[in-house]
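One record is given unchanged without comment:
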Amino acid sequence: MFRKDEVIALANSLRFRHAEKIESARLISLSHEMKWSSLRPLVLAHREKIRSDVAAFVQEAMNQYHVKHSSSLPNQIDSDA
């Protein structure tokens, strides 16, 4: 297992959003007080939250891209009209 200073250095070197960094630091601090069996669900939930945030960000970026670039496409004639 990593020493505390190595874990903190690793966490500081990773690119996190601010809220993610705070939660990561909180989990690191808990790692000295809790057994892994108790900490594991918290770490896994944190990882899943990051994954879902990334997926939501990617989807929103794709939506914005399509909205921005669809205006440059010629208007299609509606077949129901």
Remarks:
- The longest helix spans residues 36-70.
- The chain has one domain: 4-70.
- The chain has a mean pLDDT of 80.
- Helices lie at 4-13, 18-30, 36-70.
